[in-house]
Write a structure and sequence with these properties.
About 70% of the residues lie in helices and about 0% in strands. The chain is an all-alpha fold and about 525 residues long. It has one domain. β1 and β2 form a beta hairpin. α10 packs parallel to α12 and α10 runs antiparallel to α17.
Length: about 525
């Protein structure tokens, strides 16, 4: 009990100073974005200079603190201070990744963004922390399982080079599908107390408000008028000229809402992923005024999601919210009936008004029959890819065509199944399956209803993201791959925090001075 009171006292003493630290980091992030717009070289020098200083300070801190961990589950004040710099970098990279993910420059067709640079620096510091720690990785749930999947990705990349797949594409796809997985390790390392969880929750709410408001400004004043190349959009990739603007335009010339994500489908996936998490936050709010305000934000995010005209994201959002209701046991028979009536009414409405250009994409009769519909092309590409896979020799069926192979399929699971093979796809399913099983078991051990609700929202958000990937290969886009693993780490860390607190309290009660 004394430990909890001491933690609360420390919280009240450090809130103000930490607020200024976070505010300073956000201002620094904005400065990096401005530098990127004016001179990407200067921005890179500033960022890497800061990284060099940070690495020296971080390594120096470890040279004075290499005590072995006796109880892995107990997070003491020393360890919180020990990972303070790493948490600040994670906070900044995470906030930029979910708010202005496209801030930066495009070099040789490869996006170099502020968020990716900061994430890369955070990974370097995390790796240093592993080298200077004893028994460190044992604190991270499923560390060995995920490492096996990453190692297979490396093996597949080597095989891809033997297949003579383009080296550039092999590297890009490895970074896209495997390079952001360490974000899960990073979050599980630094997110170790309630105050940091509150900071991340606050950052998610603020980010959702900002990206949705910016999207509304795009509709009000025009997409080009308020665009800030290098910050809200990447240079040379604003219009997707090589695709004829197809990604961001629908029938009738109406443009998809994409906010700072530059693509309506990407923005839709982001909203669908964090909508259920926002729902989990609403469920723990006791104040009626706060709950009303957050409910208004929730409705506003739903409206923004619809304006992205991303059918996969809309389906993912619906499934995610329904999953939240089921997991949180907040749904009853009447509620199920209401949802079914709403879904049927929406289906009838969209089909009856499908002659309107903006609703033609929701005409379900045309989705798989009209060859001019992009969705029909998606189905045909999946069927064609599966037929070709059946004709491959046995070793390629087992290990896949390899990363970087020429393949156009709008389904993440078919895409990875063909490129990674049966073995790689099995490891993917095994990793995700063990993750969700572990998280669900951990959720049952959490005795704090508030933390449990946040875990429920995280699980539902991850489900929404996976559902949307049935209709697209969204992990190919760095912001979405990073945010998926960020949210996975956040959800797992929330559960671990509660377990650590309980073990810590038990340890204090069992100590000699309390006997």
């Amino acid at each position: 009990m004394a430990y909890i009171m001491r933690q609360q006292g420390n919280f009240s003493q450090h809130v103000r100073s930490e607020f200024f630290e976070y505010a300073s980091l956000l201002i620094a992030g904005a400065g990096v974005g401005l530098f990127s717009a004016a001179s990407p070289i200067v921005a890179l020098l500033v960022v890497f200079g800061f990284a060099a200083i940070a690495i020296l300070l971080y390594a120096n801190a470890f040279s004075y603190s290499r005590e072995s961990t006796q109880i892995a589950a107990v997070a003491d004040e020393t360890s919180d201070k020990r990972y303070r710099l790493l948490f600040l970098l994670f906070f900044l990279s995470f906030f930029i990744s979910i708010t202005i993910p496209k801030s930066g420059k495009t070099l040789s067709g490869v996006p170099i963004t502020s968020a990716n640079i900061l994430i890369f620096i955070s990974f370097i510091l995390w790796f240093i922390s592993v080298l200077f720690s004893n028994g460190f990785t044992s604190r991270i749930p499923l560390f060995n399982t995920i490492i096996v999947f990453i190692l297979y990705g490396m093996l597949n990349s080597i095989l891809s080079l033997f297949y003579r797949n383009p080296f550039r594409m092999v590297l890009i796809e490895f970074v896209a599908f495997f390079g952001f997985i360490p974000a899960y390790f990073l979050v599980c390392t630094v997110l170790r107390n309630r105050h940091r969880i509150e900071v991340i929750v606050f950052a998610i709410i603020i980010s959702l408000i900002l990206v949705c408001l910016y999207g509304m400004l795009q509709l009000r004043f025009g997409f080009e008028r308020i665009a800030v190349p290098g910050i809200t959009e990447q240079y040379e990739m604003i219009r997707y000229a090589e695709f004829g603007g197809r990604w961001n335009y629908i029938e009738g010339g109406r443009q998809k809402l994409y906010s700072t994500f530059q693509n309506g489908n990407i923005f839709g996936n982001h909203l669908a992923t964090f909508l259920p998490f926002l729902g989990g936050i609403i469920l723990i709010i006791q104040s009626q005024w706060k709950k009303l305000a957050l409910s208004g934000i929730f409705i506003g995010v739903w409206y923004t999601l619809f304006l992205t005209y991303s059918r996969g994201a809309l389906l993912g959002g619906i499934v995610g919210v329904f999953a939240l209701a089921v997991i949180a046991k907040k749904i009853h028979f009447r509620a199920v009936g209401v949802l079914l009536v709403f879904a049927i009414s929406l289906f009838i409405f969209t089909n009856q008004h499908s002659d309107r250009p903006e609703l033609a994409r929701y005409n379900f009769r045309r989705l798989t029959s009209d060859p001019n519909q992009f969705s029909a092309g998606r189905v045909q590409r999946v069927e064609s890819a599966i037929k070709k896979f059946r004709q491959l020799p046995l070793y390629q069926k087992l290990f896949g065509l390899g990363l970087g192979a020429n393949l156009v399929v709008d389904n993440l699971y078919v895409y990875l199944f063909i490129k990674l093979g049966v073995i790689g796809f099995f490891l993917l399913v095994w990793t995700l399956g063990k993750f969700f099983i572990t998280l669900m078991r951990l959720r049952t051990q959490v005795d704090d209803i508030r933390l449990q609700s946040l875990i429920n929202g995280g699980i539902a958000g991850l489900i929404a993201s996976l559902v949307h990937n049935i209709a697209d290969v969204l992990w190919f886009f760095p912001p979405l791959a990073a945010n998926f693993w960020f949210l996975a780490g956040i959800s797992m860390s929330i559960g671990m925090t509660n377990v650590q607190e309980r073990l810590c309290v038990k340890g204090l009660h069992a100590s000699p001075q309390n006997r």
